[in-house]
Write the C-alpha cells for this entry.
Amino acid sequence: MEDHFLTISGPSEAEFKDRGSRFIAHAIPVIDEQDIREHLDRLRGEHPKARHVCHASVMGTDGSEHRANDDGEPAGSAGPPILNQIRSKGVTQVLVAVVRYFGGTKLGVPGLIHAYKASAKAALDAATVVERVRMGRIGLVFPHTAIGEVERIIRQQHLMVVEQGFAMDCRWAVEMPVAQVDTVRAMFAAVKDVAVSH
C-alpha cells in the first residue's frame, strides 16, 4: 500500500443538531496548506454568523502531517475529535471543517466532543474514498542537444512533465508513480550530459 494512499474524491457535507446548536461539517480534499487556508476563509465568509469553524486536517501521502484546531471551543473538544474521525477513515490530503451555530444551550465538553465527532463522521461517510498513486518527482538539467533523448524516455515511460525551462540549459521536472522513480532516474543518468536531481 505504500505506493498508494486513500483520499476523498470531492467535497461532502453533513449536519448534526443538538439542543439548538447546528454543526455543519465539510469534508474537503486538499493539496497543501494554502488550499486549507482558502477553504477555511471561504467557509467563514459563507457563515459570518457562525460562532466557530473548528477543523482538522491530515496531509502528506503517508498521513504524517496533521493539525487540529478548536477555534475557541474548550481545549480538545472540537479539533481532536474531528482529527480522530479522519484518522479512523484512513484518508489523507483531507480537511474537515465544522461550522457551529450556537443554539443558546451550552453542551458541555462531553456534548461538544460527541457533536464534533458525529458531524465529522457523517461528512466523511458521505464522501467517496478513492485510491491515488503516490507520485515522485525528478529534476533534469541538460543541453538543448539532449532534448530528443530526454523526450524519448518521457514518452516510453509515460512520464508527466510538470516544469519546463529553456534558458542556457533546459531545466525540466518530471513526475511518475513513486515505484518508478529509481528506474527512471537510472535511465536519465545513463544519458550523456543529463544531470539528475531530486
About this structure: The longest helix spans residues 108-126.
